[in-house]
Amino acid sequence: MTACYCGSGGTYTDCCQPIHQDHKQAHTPEQLMRSRYSAHVLGLVDFVIKTYHPSCNAESERDAIAESVQSEWQRLEVVSTASGSHDDEGYVHFKAYLLDQHQKFCLEERSRFLRENGLWYYIDGEFPQQS
Question: Structure pTM?
Answer without folding.
Answer: 0.94
